[in-house]
Amino acid sequence: MKETIKLTLEPEELPKQWYNLLVDSPVEFPIYLDPSNNEPMSPQKLMALFPIECVKQELSNQRYIDIPEEIRTAYYRLGRPSPMYRAKRLEEVLKTPAKIYLKREDLSPPGSHKPNTAIAQAYYARQEGCTELVTETGAGQWGSALSYSCALMGITLQVYMVRISYQQKPYRKYLMQVYGANVDASPSNKTDFGKKLLEKDPNHPGSLGIAISEAVEHAIKNDGTKYTLGSVLNHVVLHQTVVGQEVLLQMKKYEIKPDIMIGCVGGGSNFAGFSFPSIGKKLRKEDGFEDLRIIAVEPTACPSINKGEYRYDLGDTAGYAPLAKMYTLGHDFVPPPIHAGGLRYHGAAPLVSLLAHEKVIESQAYPQEEIFASAQLLAKVEGLVAAPETAHALHAAIMEAKKCKETGEAKTIIYNHSGHGFFDLEGYKQVLGFD
């Protein structure tokens, strides 16, 4: 029988529920703190900022949460369930006995995994009667996804885009504008905090922490506006678990037992969504997942888990957002302007941080020169142009496959191919030295 390269699911196999890892957490989840007094953050304060249903999900003690049918229908529009591919040609070039699979999250209209939560957040905001959403974006994947989702739901969107990415990735900005969003470089002149920073440095490159501060300030000052974000918080990673649950179904359907699962980490949404359902099985000691290795991959320029401290820190630079316990480089950290803009956040998601601290997952960090070289290799042999963020997971998968070549072990490696790099070709040119 010919070996299956493309692992697909039928439309009716699209998951009907999201998975909440909070229920299976190895230790009690650290509560959020109010930045004004360091006391526990009340749900009411969170609801003033985020859509109410999202806050309920943030604090939920249910293992599985039903996905509303309208959201599932929108998931179909995204191309869900998304396929998983075996990178057979990559294996052959590497001369490795390992099997390398990639979950294709780059096929959505905005080009990444981000719509999985953007659609949900826009849906819940509309149900609540919100007329405007506001957010930040680093590389532009999240801003593109939320722009697309707000267009579907009929809601206005304001995006604060990290200035260095605004300059490096103009086509992401144009895509957001095509979907109808208003986009400003951050720091901007639209907020008090942005103006203060620009007075000190008119060419400030910005950071995700700064962009979050501007977005939160905007939400606080405008009635009918709610803030949304594309990573870090529990309800965001919850929505992304549609990815990991599809992976479980694909592994079962095609009789695949994973040895290693890999995802890149900035805030942690794609890594969590891809891996949490399998981590849940590992924690519950189900289906032989006890020995599964799960690797979170960061850039060496912004290694929150690898070099940060595990402690309470603010989620933004100005101090508007709640305090969360996480691996952090400090909320005032401004990373170098690397091309993986989505991986430049100063902290990792609290749940991802907790798993790293409890040694449930591993972490690795690589420089952008290495990850772009691996991305070019994938493009040459499989035809896929990966986003710089995605290339971190790809590179780690290649490194693990090379170890298998040395040891002769035929391990099964699965990584999350979280986004395409069509808007990142300037980064390829600069790092790889194209004319």
Notes on the structure:
By secondary structure, this protein is an alpha/beta fold. It folds into 2 domains: 6-16 and 79-111 and 240-432, Rossmann fold (3-Layer(aba) Sandwich), CATH 3.40.50; 17-64 and 113-227, 3-Layer(aba) Sandwich (Rossmann fold). The chain is 43% helix and 17% strand. The chain has helices spanning 43-49, 52-58, 69-78, 88-94, 115-128, 141-153, 163-168, 170-178, 192-200, 208-221, 234-253, 269-284, 304-307, 350-357, 368-382, 388-407, 425-432, and strands spanning 6-7, 17-19, 64-66, 84-86, 99-104, 132-137, 156-162, 182-186, 225-227, 260-264, 293-299, 309-314, 323-328, 362-366, 412-417. The strands form 4 sheets. It has a 7-stranded mixed β-sheet with strand order 1-4-5-15-10-11-14, with helices on both faces. Strands 8-7-6-9 form a 4-stranded parallel β-sheet, with helices on both faces. The radius of gyration is 20 Å and the shape is globular. The relative contact order is 0.16. The model has no long low-confidence stretch (mean pLDDT 94).
